Structure formats: C-alpha cells, structure tokens
Amino acid sequence: MQRLSQQVWIGTEDWSVATLVSGIPGIHTIGTVLGISIKYAAIAGFETFESHVVSKLLRDTSNGMMDLRVDCLQNTDLYSMAVKNFSLDGYDMTSSYNVYKAVYAVAHALHQALGCDSGECQKIEVQPWQEVPPSICSPECPTGHRKLQTGQHKCCFDCLACPAHTFLNSTGSTWCQACELHQWSTEASNVCLDRTVLLLAWDAPLSLALLVLLALTLFMTLGSGVVFLLNLGTPVAKSAGGRTCLVMLLALTAAAASALCHFGLPSRPACLLKQPLFVFSFTVCLACVTVRSFQVGNSTIFQLHSHYELFY
C-alpha cells in the first residue's frame, strides 16, 4: 500500500472527476491523480440550429410527415430527442465540440492547401499528410522584436519591440543587440545606422567668418589689457579701476577664447573645458563690473555729501 501511494496516475475526465470514484473509501491513499480534461468552448449557432431542427421534426411528426425509414443517424437521433421532448440544456456538447474541432481543422487545412485565400480554390490533388495544420502557440516574432516567454512553455511568448539604439536582425532571440557608439537606431529596428556628424569645420565659410570676429575680439581685449598693464600706475588707469579693470579684461579674453572649443571634431578635453571656462570667466567679469559700480557709486555719494551737507 505504501508503494501504491507513491504512484502518479493519469486519468481521463470520465473517472478522474467522477464522484463515484472520488467517494471510494481510502481513494486518497493511491497516490497522485492527474486528470486530463478536454477543453470545451461554445459552438456559435449550434444550439440554435439543433433547436430549429428539433422543432421542425416535432411539427413534421404531428402532421404525420416524418418518414421513420430515413436511414440517417443524425435525423434518427434528433427524432428520438424530439419525441421524448429531450431538452438541449442537458445535452453533453463535449462530443459535438470534438467533432466540430476536427471538421474545423480539416476545413482550414484544405483551405490553405488549395490556396483559397486568393478567392478561388485550386483544383489539385491534396494528400492526407498535407492537411495537417501547424500547431503553434505563438507565431515567430518579426525582425526588430524579441521574445518574452509568457508561461512555462517556450512556444508561448509575446513579441516586444527592441528599444531605440538597439536592433535585432533575426527571429527567435530573447534579447536585442546594442548599437555601436557611432551608430543609432529607432524602435523596432533590425539594423543600426551610422550617425551623421554635424560640426563647425575649421575651413567652413561660417567658421571662417566667426573666427575673424573672434580674432578681432581677442585682439581688442588683449591689446587693451597690455596697454592697461603698461600704464597701471598712472592716474588714468587708477581712475578706470586699476587692477579690477585688468582682471575684467583678462576674464573677457578667456570667455572669448572658450569659443575655440566649438570648432572642429569634438574631443573630450574640449567638451569638458568649454562650458566651465566660459561660465567662470563671464562670472568674474560680471563680478568686476559690480565691484567697480559700487566704487563709482560710493565716490559719487561722497562728493555730493561734501557739496550738499544740508541734504544729508
């Protein structure tokens, strides 16, 4: 009995779900029972059809028009159901559904084998082995899509589009391949495209015009700075701000020089330098302007105070 309890039983739905079997004393000790049930689905229009046929048979029987000698199994069964007033609600549709599935499979297999999708079936001989329809859970994913398994069976999966900057040029894969650094791709792509490089070339007409303006700016700021440095101790230089004005000119020169990082092919040092250099230099320049403004403002206030003491 102990060996029996370790067995695994595979039973059909005829006895695995029967209350007569499950009610046997000690049945739970026989081991594990796996019951196989046939899937059932409603057949559209089937019950309506049989109800119509049964009603017609009842009318024909009452009028004496039913020929009991009809050698047709379907009519004979329906006639028996009609005369016994059998309700279709208690009729087991499982067997009918199995027949429906078989006819449905053969019909679609013939439809495909004869090429009826074009609107007219071909008149060719079809062998029995050609009528077997493909049995798949999920169709293959197109290129640019990867598989995502949705259950315990590998044949059942969803198709997910590869995200941007990835690609997949084959079917059946569960992951998308990343593009190279110099390439790009859109969503659901099966190939990566080379990036188009847009830059300010040194010899481009626009670049030459900008470089001329930049050279003039650097010449003016550097020239003014050199002149200011040579005459730093003079009264004119001191009244203009002295060292504060000199620092402001140097900051303007550095801010203008940061524009050189925008020309030619981008490089890591240029990309790291251009923004911080411009921001820092321009901030220093604005700070110098602010300091000089306070100095001029205080000097003006003191002069007004000496001339108009009554108003202060």
Give the strand line-up of the largest sheet: 1-2
Look at the structure and give the mean pLDDT: 78
N- to C-terminal distance? 117 Å
Shape: elongated
Would you count the extended β strands for me?
8
The class by helix and strand makeup works out as mainly alpha
Q: Please tally the helical runs, counting DSSP H or I stretches of 4 or more residues.
A: 9
Domain G-protein coupled receptors family 3 profile: 206-296
GO molecular function, one term: G protein-coupled receptor activity
Keywords: Cell membrane, G-protein coupled receptor, Glycoprotein, Membrane, Receptor, Signal, Transducer, Transmembrane, Transmembrane helix
Pfam families: 7tm_3, ANF_receptor, NCD3G
Write the layout of secondary structure elements.
Layout: E1 8-12, H1 13-16, H2 19-22, E2 32-36, H3 46-62, H4 73-83, H5 94-113, E3 145-149, E4 157-161, E5 166-167, E6 177-178, E7 183-184, E8 193-194, H6 205-230, H7 235-240, H8 243-257, H9 268-307
Parallel strand pairs: 1-2
Antiparallel strand pairs: 3-4, 5-6, 7-8
Helix pairs in contact: 3-4, 6-8, 8-9
Question: What can you see in these coordinates?
Answer:
The protein has nine helices and eight strands. It is mainly alpha-helical. Among the domains are: 4-36, no CATH class; 145-194; 205-311. Strands 1-2 form a two-stranded parallel ribbon. Strands 3-4 form a two-stranded antiparallel ribbon. A hairpin with an 8-residue loop joins strand 7 and strand 8. Helix 3 crosses helix 4 (73-83) and helix 6 packs antiparallel against helix 8. The chain starts with 7 loop residues before the first strand and ends in a 5-residue tail after the last helix. Mean pLDDT is 78; it is low at 68-76. It is a multi-pass membrane protein. One of its GO terms (molecular function) is G protein-coupled receptor activity. Pfam families: 7tm_3 (PF00003), ANF_receptor (PF01094), NCD3G (PF07562). It is found in: Cell membrane. Residues 206-296 form the G-protein coupled receptors family 3 profile domain.
